[in-house]
């Protein structure tokens, strides 16, 4: 499998359950070994190239407060205290959680937990954000809130890949669609050229 990722691009990753969507995202994030070719276009001055956000945000929550959760990864990569504070304040304002910085993250709503999971990764300044079913566990209100956050991230000129079963929900913000079947790419192209057989399938 050969795949090229581009910054400033939003791609939807579609496929039936078991098609390999989560596995591909984990490969892109360096969590799984892979023998194929994956290339990324973008800048080289970021802390990490890719950042992976799990489907269930609670699996990523580590800190006892929202603030502690965001700074955990930043401390681990050895940033100075001033830079950690700067990034944490910035990212919590971007996702709209700054006023909750001292709150227990497990007391947040589902949508807020998803925002926190995204914030913790975004603070690391990856060029590519990999979102694994970011709206799967959310109600209509929280799905919309997360989508609005993704729009804000688009303005930061990140590359974004969204693995989802809610494809049409994201059609208006995506440019590209990648369709998997049994671990193989069966379509990779512009969203406006997506074959009709795929449109209502996922």
From TrEMBL:
<dbReference type="InterPro" id="IPR003593">
    <property type="entry name" value="AAA+_ATPase"/>
</dbReference>
<keyword id="KW-0813">Transport</keyword>
<dbReference type="InterPro" id="IPR015856">
    <property type="entry name" value="ABC_transpr_CbiO/EcfA_su"/>
</dbReference>
<dbReference type="GO" id="GO:0005524">
    <property type="term" value="F:ATP binding"/>
</dbReference>
<dbReference type="InterPro" id="IPR027417">
    <property type="entry name" value="P-loop_NTPase"/>
</dbReference>
<keyword id="KW-0547">Nucleotide-binding</keyword>
<dbReference type="InterPro" id="IPR050095">
    <property type="entry name" value="ECF_ABC_transporter_ATP-bd"/>
</dbReference>
<comment type="similarity">
    <text>Belongs to the ABC transporter superfamily.</text>
</comment>
<dbReference type="InterPro" id="IPR003439">
    <property type="entry name" value="ABC_transporter-like_ATP-bd"/>
</dbReference>
<keyword id="KW-0067">ATP-binding</keyword>
<dbReference type="InterPro" id="IPR017871">
    <property type="entry name" value="ABC_transporter-like_CS"/>
</dbReference>
<feature type="domain" description="ABC transporter">
    <location>
        <begin position="1"/>
        <end position="199"/>
    </location>
</feature>
<dbReference type="Pfam" id="PF00005">
    <property type="entry name" value="ABC_tran"/>
</dbReference>
<protein>
    <submittedName>
        <fullName>ABC transporter ATP-binding protein</fullName>
    </submittedName>
</protein>
